[in-house]
Amino acid sequence: MLAALPAPYNAGDLENGRRAFARCRSCHTITPGGPNMAGPNLYGVFGRQAGALDKYSYSHALRSAGFTWDADKLDHWLENPKTFLPGNKMTFAGLRDATDRRDVIAFLKVETGYAPETAKAAATATAPAS
């Protein structure tokens, strides 16, 4: 799966990403149907509208952010959540190291149901007509 990710995430270190994500596990789950905790479940986060996961109480800043989560947005968020989107309620100070952020994003892409665009296009092209 790592090789199918777009650059630079295809060069990520999943073990480092897993270790770095350990700081996030006290607030976030990443399994399908996993519970929301202090932070929302992150399964399916890529392609999800910010502040739109059902049954999670987001800050006004996230509910009104008006963007969809992608790797670039998540990278900036992880670097410093407070300056990326002032008014959010996340207390995490951020991951300053760019390599750690790359690896966490690669780890999340592998673990949260991300499907590269080429895989989505192939699945759509081979799906039977209804």
Automatic annotation (TrEMBL):
Coiled-coil residue windows: none
Pfam families assigned to the protein according to its UniProt record, in alphabetical order: Cytochrom_C
Record keyword Heme present: yes
InterPro entries with a match to the protein in the record: Cyt_c-like_dom (IPR009056), Cyt_c-like_dom_sf (IPR036909), Cyt_c_1A/1B (IPR002327)
Keywords assigned by UniProt, alphabetized: Electron transport, Heme, Iron, Metal-binding, Transport
Highest taxon of source: Bacteria
Record-annotated Cytochrome c domain positions: 12-112
Protein name (database record): Cytochrome c family protein
Organism the protein comes from: Brevundimonas pondensis
